[in-house]
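Take a record.
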Amino acid sequence: MKLFLLRHGESTSDIEDRYGGDYDDHLTEKGLQQAREQADKLVGKGIEVIFSSPRIRATESAGVLKSVLDCELKVVDDLRERNAYGVLTGMVKSEAKQKHADKVELLKHYSYTIEGAESYEALCERVRNVMDKLTSTQHQIMAILTHGGFIRCFLREVMKMGAIKSLGDCAIIGLEKNEDGYKIISIENVQL
């Protein structure tokens, strides 16, 4: 089985410097263009289905992919981004630093859980479970469109790769899965 693990394009919270996570924002014009370029790179790969996070920025990216790749699109709730920011979700970062400096400081480590956030452990369990579920479908080649936190958790915890240096907008990670697990076969817009 082959799968392409994809990140959505640039969103409004990126350019507004907000704590995103579970914040439901749209793609920017640049994000839409990035999604078109991502789709063009996936033409001819044989993708049968796109599984997408329900967050608007992800479904907008997935919609672009669907129109170019002409395949089925299914929205899967468990592909959503981690609510890592709890009470800070959607806040402009400078405002959050003024109002909640203690909580902002705690965010420096990915595994810490602040008030109202999803724990890192819960995210890891969700990532493992949904990936197992999606890769046990009848599809042989699929795209899974999700978010940075989800992808980082997958690479760190499932593939045991440790922390990655950077994960760009519309990153593409080509994977092969068999009984032994996952193997990276291609990578774009990611620094390991």
